[in-house]
Known about the structure:
tonb box; Plug_dom_sf; Beta-barrel_TonB_sf; 951 residues; cell outer membrane
Amino acid sequence: MVRTKKNLLTLALAAAGIGSFALMAEQAEPDSAVAAAEEERVEVIEVRGFASSLFRSLDAKRFSDIVSETISADDLGALPDVSMADALTRLPGISAVRTGGQAAEINIRGMSGGFVFSTLNGREQVSTSGKRNIEFDQYPSELINSAAVYKSPKASLIEGGVAGTVELQTASALRNEQQHTFVVNARGMYNDRANEVPDGKESGHRFSLSYQGKFLDDTLGVALGYARLFQPSVATQFVGLAYNAQKDVTGDGQNEFLSEGFEIQHRGGEETRDGYMASVEWAPLSNFSLKADAFISRFDKEAFARGFRVKLGGASTAVGNPVLNNNSVIGGTFNRTSQSFTRVEIVNDDNRDYNEVDSFGIKADWDVTDRLNLTMDVSRSTASSDFRNGLLWSLVAEDATADVPVLDPNVSISYGLNGLNLPNMGFNQADAFSDINRVMVSKYGIYPYVNSDAVNAFKLDLVYELDMPLIRSVEAGVRYSERRYSNDRSVFEYGSDGAFLSSQPPLRLTDDMVDIVDFKGKFAYFPSYLAIDLDKALNAWFPQGVPQPIQTWGTGNPDVINSPSPGVGPNTGWSVQESGQVFEDVLASYLMVNLDTELFDLPLTGNLGVRRVDTDQTATDLANVDGDPLQGAQFIVDEAGLINGRYAPGIIGDRYTHYLPSINLNLGLTENTQLRFAAAKVISRPPINRLSSNTAIFISDDGEVSGNSSNSPFLRPFEATQYDLSYEYYFGTGAFVAALFYKDIKSFINDFTIQEFDFKAAGFPVPDQIINEDGVPRATFDGAFSTAVNNEDGGYIRGIELAYTQIFDFLPSIWSGLGVSGSYSYTESEVDLVNPLGGEPVAMSFEGLSKQVLTATLFWEHEGLEARISGRYRSPFVSTQIGIDEQVTNFHSETVVDFQAGYQWNDNLKLLFQVNNLTDEPTKSYFGQQAQTGTLQFFGRQYFLGAVYSF
């Protein structure tokens, strides 16, 4: 049986220590004498730790039936990385986007996280991000036994990854070599920039413990794991904001572009992650097994941002001595006028993000006959995120001690950007920023984002082994999933960020509420400011307690028909309109044949198949029908008791079918070399939040129906046809791999206007006729609908990947454990996206694409000592910076270097020392051109000292 052959091969690889690269998978089952002779000829190199993980990963790549990369751990807790995002960046063609200094989102082959599909134990995972891509920092590396990145799909894999699919695997106790293993991992952590941030914490810790055991004559396996991370999050940053205003500042009759402003801030906080893993396997018969597993993660982040937010004032500001980069103003003196809003806001923001991820599943595996295998899997994945964005604004008064304080109108701001270096800066009010007799709190707002996402899935797979010269086996299967996503917005606002209101007067600060904060290091020349104790300020301003945020139409909404509710702001109708649900039901089936034959007397293996995917997606909708009851208008009451009768609630959506063929071929050129080819049609579904609906529909007096929506439940998936070709050479102490890839991508999401859109067919409540203001009946007819659509214009992404790994065992004695592992990838694309945030629209590359990505690790092991230094370089790329809003910018190239050393004290105890971000690499971004600074953010180095104890 082929199934038996695979098991024999696995045993042979394990016996060879590093995977016995000289041994090829036999085409016929050997007898015991031949097998023994082969085993004697295999060179066994004794390696442990990092090198052992590398070679197991190469084994997995070599014998995979698709183009893939793998990370493998000796045991639970053996991976050194803080999260799986860090671990995955060691693989060829994979890079990370750092958030707060930590890798969170990964990019594969030049494509951003939205094109990456992820599974855990073969099951689709939902995300706390409110999008499709999971946040890998939610997954502790200590609880993951292996991770694979599938760069080419096969029909049996769940669809969804144009860039690739990441498969995370937790432990299987019955596959563990030991009868019982117990691992404890403890590390202390220190950040060397925390002392630059007021109230920044310097120290943290990581702790994990895990157990794997086999019972009842190895028929019952139990695996348990717990991992905790507590770490400070600190950064000092300058953030330039988008160029969204125009003014003729040179007097030549042509407008130049003005930035909204910039931020200079300290950021700090705490991140606490608790992860839990459990699995129980039962194999009462040799042909049947049942496994139930659970993964739970709780990731809480409490963060603050303190410093300045500078508003330059828009087109009405007075600009002197302008400095230009093309047609964008990158410096000058900005003075407040009676018409402008030029000001400096002292910000003391408080953000809290509570994330929960749960994944549960039960899988049954049954060899019905010697040829037929059935597997059935039932799973549930849920994720929820409660992000509370609390903002406290303070402004400069002429005299904060006055009975009726007045905003200081004398505002002059001088600045000059220095590209990827910190700017020059000057404020005429600088002395006032740290004076409680001048600074007053003017506004407080809370803006929660509450997301929940869940998918229930059922999967049935069949494998039938054949005794044929060409086809080794046939696979077929079906999968049904139900996904439910909801987004709830709410709001509380009091005061104004640009004025002192008489109806909601500002708060005068007292000495016990504030500390004077100085910038340090490279930022030391910026003015001092007041850091405000949020709780003390709010208790003084709201002695009865701060009201909780609610969903509300707002008192300024002209459609509200009853009396205002106290404490509700005027322009908050978005909190109702941006809340809603998305429903996605998917039925997929596939048929695949596994090949095992010869081509020109060379062994040829692989698979050929097709996957059919039927999708039914809908979303709740509030259609603005101008209060017409014939179009379904209803009275909708918000949480403040305000009533709006303009909207018609409903559910709208679409159904569609995809056929996804795929082929994977592996030709064995020699015992040690092989050639792979893969081709497939692939899809990535739109971000789940983009399928929500916030539609406004209008009917003119002549009956024309028109509408608009920033999202759309009619969006279709991204589509691509992709090709892979790779050459792999394996030798006794390493491997060399060269690969080419090409993706022809279609169906990008763009904002577009569809003429003569069929509103009725889409599910909108459109009447057959209306009565106009003159009382004349008019038949309705379809007009334009502006919304997010799939643009059929696409383009290619293509590139090359090189990877090399070797242990230099030929070196003498102490140096025989020296080794190197590295990869290089070059990626290019004809896809140009246009970014207007820097003023003039600028063509930019595909989001997430770095032309060059380089990883290199030099490692050494000798008599229990182990050390390695790793570097990750990526050339400039496009991603999203976080300012007042998310803004797409160009990120500068970066090189992140990590170091780790360890000593195996005895068979049970290993001591570890680790430094992340050894060179204190900052994040730097810009708007189209380096002269227009985006983000300059410095995080500091993280030091870890600890031990791993196992028995």
